[in-house]
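Attaching the record inline, Q. Sequence:
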Amino acid sequence: MSDTRPNIFSRLAKAGVPDISTLPDEALLSRRQLAGLTGYTEQALRKWTKQGRGPKTVYLEGRPRTTVKAYREWVAGAQQVSA
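Structure, as predicted:
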């Protein structure tokens, strides 16, 4: 079986999705970047924001952003629920 990780990382980089392991907690992610990281659509993330679900969202000049810290906390919480 071949290792597909380089292909995945290459695809994410081309889509503008950063390697969040290298980003500080305060770094801001766009909804498009979140969609690339999670595999969920931007529409689903938008809906969850309106419902108070998903990662915490802040608005910078009217544009939704999520801190890397909020993303990490959301992922950790989701993993605990399903465990």
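The two ends are 28 Å apart (CA to CA). The longest strand covers residues 63-67.

More tomorrow.
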